[in-house]
Amino acid sequence: MIHSRFARILISMLVVLLIALLVVDIAYQMHNHTTQSTRPQRQPTVGTPATATSTGQQTPSQQQTSTATAGHANKTVFLIVMENANWSSIYDNPSAPYINKTLLPMASYARQYYNPPDNHPSEPNYLWLEAGTNFGIYNDNGPYVNHLATSMHLVTLLNRAGISWKAYEEGISGTTCPLNSQDLYAPKHNPMIFFNDVTGDNNLASAYCIAHERPYSELTSDLAHNTVARYNFIAPDLCDDMHNSCFPLFNPIQQGDNWLAQQIPMIMRSQAYQNGGVIFITWDEGIGGNGPIGMIVLSPNAKGHGYSNNIYYTHSSTLRTVEEIFGVTPLLGAAAHATDLSDLFKNFP
User: Fold this and answer.
1) What proportion of the chain, given as a percentage, has pLDDT over 90?
2) How far apart are alpha carbons 207 and 199 in whole angstroms?
3) For residue 314, what are the β-bridge partners?
4) Could you give phi then psi for residue 293, rounded to 5 degrees?
5) What is the CATH number of the domain that holds 175?
6) pLDDT(247) > 60
7) How many domains does the chain have?
8) HSE-CB for 343 with a 13 A CA cutoff
9) pLDDT tens across 303-328, in order?
10) pTM, whole model, 2 decimals?
11) What does the DSSP assignment read for 326-345?
């Protein structure tokens, strides 16, 4: 009798427990359904890497980038950086006849272009052209010392947007990531290799780095076959960029002028230049101050014919201009507040 009563009590307790569990489960399902139906769908992060689907179709981010820049007049950029000269030492200098007698009469150029205030020596200015800041670096140490973990720099924005880029560096082998000085090649004049996402954390064998950091000697073939990237950063070696005094001329400005006289016509004959190309020629820093330094723009879309202005520009202006041409965001560092170089163009971007 006692056992029968205990069994009935136990069964009753189990029934109550089951009912309670059922009620909790129903309430949870109703809550989950309501939350999912009202939660906004997560949008793709702006600037996430563009990848191809298995069918070879472009992802939406690539399609949007292509659409965003399809109407831009300027499609391919060549940025050439020379070394250590104030504009006053270039303009009307008989040691620079090609710049003064050939380039300037057909180019647009700036008379008040400066390196960022007190931004010296060379390396901080190259970093500024790539990222709009020097990251607190005020020396010329190599990437093993001054390597940077951030992805907020130009070529990574371009890569994420599906826009090709290359750095053509005179004097590198092209068989390793060029992290070390070699003969007349100086890593301090190669801003991309200071970023870990380019070098694979200073990996000499980084395939991504090697594919994008190419010997300058390859530019001739790439131009001839119309296989240049859309953004091309060009750094002559220490003799050709006006940095060193070298045999046989022992005249840095004349050395650089001769180099430009040999290389600029080759670029200007290319399809990449003639179909919406832009050549920017600038110098990294002023001597004895911040400048003015040179900024020369050659393009079918430039005002040209010797047009010049007195607008205040810095390397931030160049970076902003390149970002606007390619439609990539965010505007990096000081580029967000800089005046772009659009006044030097008749068609922009």
Assistant:
1) 80
2) 9
3) 114
4) -120, 175
5) 3.40.720.10
6) yes
7) 1
8) 15
9) 999 999 999 999 999 999 999 999 99
10) 0.82
11) HT-SSPPGGGGGS--SGGGB
